[in-house]
């Protein structure tokens, strides 16, 4: 008597034609299993491990084929994901059959089903295989044994499995209280067993998902999407997006699928399993065929679906895990694999990421278009319309507190009404109805006709400047709407060129268009006083502003030329000369906007990379700006621009530097004391210090201290700092100590001031910088002063890794001890820094290329040679650079340290050993060569070398 093992060969037909060699391998697996199992009933079944080995070979070979064909572009992302799901079907169904031989038999009904994304027929390489063991009643011991056999075998095969065991009624009950379970069951697909159980579950769920329950389901899906966006970042234009869960991601398309099917009364699909005669087709979004969207919109939806799945599969294969975040290190690799090469001045990775962001925008726009149609169609069918359509202002309609066009074709016949409706909403404090947003998206292309229309330009400028018109509004509402609907890109063709444009660095966290929208939002907050606690002086300046329109237009256009190659400030200034008149600005306003764009980086670059105590710096800046009003406008634009890059970029120290720079330039522009007339200032600073110290220190000690500092010292610090230095010097003399280190946290500036008093010597700066590098400290500024008695008084302003001052006393003491040990040569700086460096930068950030660059300028200062160094930031960089400067016999007067993501910009004011500028060309060339070498140390790892190259 024989016991046969049944298997249908039909499952291989569900694989794509491009996997022509998968079917033979599937048949080979079947044949191997037949050999093992087609045996006399008296003989024991083949050893479990032999069965698993056959399945391992099938999985390994099949997955290798799928990956190869996908990476060689013979398979699309959808086809590859479907092939992986189909292969998993074969394995799961095989194990279900094998469970009959290895476990007690039972007459109980039992159905093994795929659920979730796997149930929908798509599987990413490292995603979970979600399965449901469906029973009629509570499972018996025999059924439980079979389930355990299947699960243990799947785990032994190295598969990630999400599983549940429920009865039909238990599934319906759990789905009623858990949206995750309910959603997973929408794509239920039976693989093995009694398919009537799956049919019963489908019918029960369909009955349960009616009327109020269906309405609740739709709202729950929308709420879940909202909460998911909040968790994964509501902004879809962050430069490292989550392609599965973020806004504009695959999950948003799936959500549209679920609510569309539910609203149409077909929430549960019942796709035939791979063992039936009709294998499942490669799945596509059902909403594309609902008839609710145009053929153009359906085409874009399918294109987005395909693109996102292709990116997701590349991401899994490259990282070797179920990674869903598109990080810096994988972006160039995926872009290269998908054929995005450098084109003109735009890098391949930036072209790829722009395609991604435009796809995310398409998904968001599809949501705006499709969701209101689905929801309102459902409400009309069930008599749930909450409000009647009422006449609204300016011949528009009003539904509750929402405004919408009177007919769907209103904007097509009169595109100016799109902007009139927005202006109506602005003036009457009304929100846009979802149908209004839908119609704006569908008719945005007609806005091209309005580019030279004065009425449209006036409305647009009012919408742009809206953020501060009503102080009860914390954010601008209209600019994101104008951008997402594409009205802005159609009205301003130059804007469309920066939509989705990314910058491949770790400094800018948004795309160029989103950064600009954020900058306008920040500007509105500043003007309305919502950021008065964070930037109080900016709020004061904004209150007396005379050129609001100019400021907002300049903020809108300040990065309009990004991605075109060359200096985006210069190109943008030229573009403004054309754009501003089209928007209705007069010649004077146009000139000011162009000037602001040309110089929008001037204040930040000066404040953070130049010595603002140097009179030449202030005079040059005043000569460029010339007008107090332009200075105010430029300061506000600078703050909004910086704050919009990332919340982490702005801090109290940078605010302090900008405020100080603003005050000094304003003083010159307003005809006050000239920056070159220093003698009176120095004398005044000394008198203030004397008065403050009069009751604290002996007169002889005070007089000795007042004679120590040179003019640059007295002008470089305030009175409180002078007094702290006097006490420090006095204590050092009392203790007869050669080295004294003190730290003082300045909380309102967000920095800790570290002051070192010791005998001046070559390499002093490098020693201190090395000690701070070991401690993981970020140096943001430094001043080097040699007193008249030969002692060095060096001041470093430092922050922790979060850009804050140090408040933990134990941490501060450790810093001081490390500096003292470095100055006493009791620690090996090179060894310690090397160990710190070997901890390395994350692989994610090593992918960002930062070319080394050294610029030497002898015109920026009357007394010093200014050396600017650009390179990849890393532990010990400042130590390496300052060591090189010391080895070239250069004296550092001041250092200004700035980081832009992974790019460090360090500026040093240096002189030779007798205090003169370096003017010899040969020596300048040698200094430049040595510094360039110091930017690429020999201790880099192989990966870091590749990143630098």
Measured distance between first and last alpha carbons: 72 Å
Q: SS-based structural class? A: alpha+beta
Indicate the overall shape: globular
Percent helix: 40-55%
Q: Oligomeric form of this entry?
A: single chain
Number of helices: 40
Radius of gyration: 34 Å
Can you offer a commentary on this structure?
This protein is an alpha+beta fold. 54% of the residues lie in helices and 11% in strands. The strands form four sheets. Strands 11-12-14-13-17-18-16-15 form an eight-stranded antiparallel β-sheet, sandwiched between helices. A four-stranded mixed β-sheet has the order 5-4-3-6, with helices on both faces. The N terminus and C terminus are likely disordered.
Topology, please?
Blueprint lengths: L1 E2 L18 H16 L1 E2 L7 H24 L5 H26 L7 E5 L1 H4 L9 E7 L5 H16 L4 E7 H10 L1 H7 L3 E5 L1 H14 L2 H22 L17 H14 L31 H25 L11 H7 L10 H34 L8 E2 L5 E3 L2 E3 L5 H4 L2 H13 L2 E2 L1 H10 L10 H11 L13 H7 L2 H5 L1 H4 L15 H17 L7 H8 L4 H10 L10 H15 L4 H12 L3 H8 L5 H11 L2 H18 L6 H18 L9 H15 L5 H8 L4 H6 L2 H17 L3 E8 L4 E9 L4 H11 L3 E9 L4 E9 L9 H15 L5 H10 L4 H4 L6 E5 L7 E8 L4 H11 L3 E10 L2 E9 L9 H14 L7 H7 L1
Parallel strand pairs: 4-5, 9-10
Antiparallel strand pairs: 1-2, 3-4, 3-6, 7-8, 8-9, 11-12, 12-14, 13-14, 13-17, 15-16, 16-18, 17-18
What is the compact description of this entry?
The chain is α+β, with helices and mostly antiparallel strands and 949 residues long. The chain is built from 40 helices and 18 strands. An eight-stranded antiparallel sheet has the order 11-12-14-13-17-18-16-15, with helices on both faces. A four-stranded mixed sheet has the order 5-4-3-6, sandwiched between helices. Strands 7-8-9-10 form a four-stranded mixed sheet.
